[in-house]
């Protein structure tokens, strides 16, 4: 089954917590603090796999979580760094933020990995907090939370040329004749239910990628039939070959079909209407309505569109069509790569030394949030006086106390930081 869109949840690993430990050794009466730092959490990395052609794997697994960093240990031993998770996707996968629908990355380069969620930094062990006046700090910092988000994966095929047209006009036959692709071919509508790719090789260093896009019908831009499930696959193509059945065997008017397909392309994406087109008048070996064919040819001449009279079944005119296509491609810019529309690191938690915080009032409780303040609060030992004093100084030095006062807090009001709740005393 061809799957070209998926929604998944990703989360980087949390940083390990810093350790509270003290040096213990025979004949050493009072060893100092030697708690190590927590390890950094693993990242979530996306990588192009040229062996993949669909997003099928994401139909069965929708949550991807990297490993957390190890906690710090005594003797200043730091925690182990969490292993990153590598998610492999087909070439041409565009990744969007599920909340904003903005593009985060375009996985088109097989040699370039993209880190989409960064692991949290490890917390500091109590060895960091020793001072001449505080020689036995009984507290440490917790690790930082890893970044998390929901994302949408969209596969937009990377092909130089896209074959478009109504169902059963001969696109699959043309692809099979010009490439080594083996699409399913039969004499009924919607034989092609998924895009097919093939490489047209004219000579050494003269080749291009050709995509057979499933047949478009009237109303496709609104989702009728296969709709925009597959229209997205021609967004990147540099050139379109519009295959039209001019035989008249099914009683269709080739000129009307031509107008309908172009109308659907423009409704889906205005840029597609302006995409260079070559018209392939197919099934010219079995024409039943010469008058309709002549009207069609005259209209193409008026529009200034290159017209090739071909028969995909017999091979008539196909070689000339492919040579002209290659020549046209040499004059066009390279395949479009979508630029990110928002920074990947936006939702990532801030560094442990970052002083940023927010104060909001919820049901009479003053909630203080922010990566720095939550990390500090999570490592406080409320049964230890030095730990409490450190916490109070940190709140004052970073401006949290002044921020609470500006927000209108009164003595005795409740303050919440992460999972901690306490009464405000000034």
Automatic annotation (TrEMBL):
Coiled coil: none annotated. Pfam families: DUF1967 (PF09269), GTP1_OBG (PF01018), MMR_HSR1 (PF01926). It is found in: Cytoplasm. The gene is obgE. Mg(2+) binds at residues 172, 192. Residues 349-426 form the OCT domain. Belongs to the TRAFAC class OBG-HflX-like GTPase superfamily. OBG GTPase family. This is GTPase Obg. Keywords: Cytoplasm, GTP-binding, Hydrolase, Magnesium, Metal-binding, Nucleotide-binding.
